[in-house]
Amino acid sequence: MISRRSLPTPKDTIVQEGHPCPVERSGLHFPTFDMLSIRVQAITMHDLLDIIADAVKNNEKYVITNLNMHYLYGLHRYSEIRDHHAQANFTHVDGLPLIPLLRLFGIKLKHENRVAYVEFLPFLAAESARKRGWRIYYLDRKSTRLNSSHITI
Hints:
The chain is of the alpha+beta class. Helices cover 39% and strands 16% of the residues.
């Protein structure tokens, strides 16, 4: 049985052994929590943009995962998804139902800590690409739907 004392608090952070710590690599600091051995960070849309800007500026490659209910299911079911998650430098919440679920574990994230790509990509294109002169490419994993598209702002 889970007791209140065994639940993580907002002060709890984790760094997995052998995992490239994002703080050491990028200098970006985000509260990091552990829910049933699943790492999640309190990242907003603006934070995600800062991560991308840092990667572009410093020619870094980061693995960014987004945690939603389907991914949560996959983490518990498939070792390949667990391996992928273990390699992630940053993990943000992408499913609104996770916000109240995380609260059950003492992790008090806000609505702004949910970053859905359907909302983030227009923000990235409209705000950031225009201001920073970036070119954005979208490459889908299924070549039957879309090979790539190019947006220049």
